[in-house]
Each structure stands twice: as structure tokens, then as C-alpha cells.
Amino acid sequence: MAEEKSESKLTVLVALGANFAIAVLKLIAGVITGSAAMLAEAGHSVADTFTEALLLTALRRSSRPADRAHPFGYGKERYFWSLMAAVSIFTSGALFAFYVGFKTVFGEPEEQTSPLVGYAVLGLAFVLEGTSWLRAVKQLRTEAAEQNRSVRRYLNLIDDPTVKTVFYEDSAALVGILLAFGGLALHDVTGDSLWDGLASVLIGVLLAGVAYLLGRTNLGLLIGRQADPAIVRGAREMLAAEPEVEVVVDLLTMVTGTDQVLMCARLDFADDLTAADLEIACVRIAGELRARFPDLDEIFLEPVPRTDPELRARVLARYGDV
């Protein structure tokens, strides 16, 4: 887990450095060329820079150990700061892009100056953003391969929002650069600033979409998402195979942080077990589960009768009659 945290931190630091440099270059180019799309991209990179700073805050604060006030640790704080990063992308990037875009589309025609400066800056920005994007892709592919999953499937299940945020924002940055280049070029060829404004509006739509995707992901994790299906399925199979367990009545899991899962299993144990046997079995079973699934940070095993009508009603209400 420490190695994965280090990988995530390096990915965020690479993105932070790239976005800061790009933001400065785009802002200078936007002022020189008068391009709305270039200014929108400058706002985009500023938003991305704020995002990386928030992600670094998420990595630092979420790694604090559990204490009396937070007995399950601070893992979910990573999701809060990542949610703030999504808000930053929308407020600092998308809204600014919409503003300069609509101002150009519906305002007076604007003359473009020194478009070559814009082309050069966008080309350099593409290289820098591409470097950060490749770093994020490398981490995603490595981690997905370790779990024998496709990158797309891994992205859907990942509980580390930092690398996912960097990947999405860098992907959006590369697309945004292409949009800005198109708007700049069409304005240069036609002399009509409408194309520049439309490119800026499209950049705003792109950023709003990315902010929504990231916000939805972190919302689910903050609320309390179920653990990776492979962990749930494997834990259920292990519990059902234990000699002391007759029936797995219910199995609840919740992601409490990156690589941290809380699990509560309600089990109908064999009736001939003594209290001492039950205690020894619970300790052994918890140890076996944790050895096979290191992400299981907290494990609670609750002995229950399978015939209890209230418990059965609650299980059926959650999962249905399966």
C-alpha cells in the first residue's frame, strides 16, 4: 500500500509541474493572440493546477492513522478532497471557458494577432500534458495487470481517486488542446472569431463532463461503496467453506479508504460449538481472511441464527429473494 501511495504521489507531482508550466504559457499566449480558446485553455490548466494541489492534500491527510475521534481512520478524507478537485475543475475551468466562449460568440468580432505564438504554445503544452498522461496510463496499466483486469474495468472499480483524476483531467487536457488548436486555426484561416468562441464553449462542455464523472465517483465512495466484487465473492466462499460455519447469512462490506475495507459477516455457526470454540474460530477465520485479502482493514464476525425473521427481512430488503 505504501508503494501504491508513492506511485500516486509521483503521478500527481508530475501532473502538477506540467500543469503549472502550461498554465503560464497559455496565459501569455492568450494575451498575445487574443484567442478565446487559448484563454479558456489557460483557465483549464489553472483549474488542473489547483486540482493537483487538492489531490496532494488528499494523499497527505488521508494517510493519518486511526484515533479516538476516527476509529476507522481518515481514509475517506481522500474522497472529500478529490470531490473538491472535481468542483475546482468545474468552477475554475468550465465556467471560465463558457464565459470567454459565449462572450466571443455573441460579442463583437475580435481580431487575432500572432497566431504562430499560439500554435507553438499549444504544441509544447501537448508534449507536457502527454508526458503527464503517459505517467498516469502507466500506473493504471500496471495496477490493472496486477489484478488481471482491463484498464476500463479497473477504472470502474478503483478506490484511489487520485490517479483516476489525473488520468481524466490529462485526457481532457489533450482533447482541449486539440479543440483550441482547431479554433485558433479556423479563426486564422477564415478571419472569423466565431470559431475561436465555439472552441472555448466546447472546452467548457468537456471540463463540465469530466467534473461530473469525477464528482459522481467520489460521491459514491463518500457515501460508502461496497468493496471490490472479487473480495466480496472470495470472502463469501471462504466463510462458507469453514467447518464451523453452516450458513453465511449476510455479508456487508464498505470501502473506508484506498486499500481499506470494513467487513461485517453474519454467520450461523454449528450448534455444537462451545463459547470457547466460537471465540477461537472467529479469531482464526478473521486471520485467514486478512491473510488472503490484505485490503480487509477491519473484520467483524457476528453469530446469528439463520431463521431470525427480522434479520431475514432486512437481508431480503437489501438484496431481494435470491
UniProtKB/TrEMBL annotation:
One of its GO terms (biological process) is zinc ion transport. It is a multi-pass membrane protein. The chain crosses the membrane at residues 12-36, 79-102, 114-134, 166-186, 198-215. Keywords: Membrane, Transmembrane, Transmembrane helix, Transport. InterPro entries: Cation_efflux (IPR002524), Cation_efflux_TM (IPR058533), Cation_efflux_TMD_sf (IPR027469), SLC30A9 (IPR040177). Pfam families: Cation_efflux. One of its GO terms (molecular function) is monoatomic cation transmembrane transporter activity. GO terms for cellular component: membrane. The keyword Cytoplasm does not apply. Residues 12-222 form the Cation efflux protein transmembrane domain. It is found in: Membrane. This is Cation diffusion facilitator family transporter. It comes from Actinophytocola algeriensis.
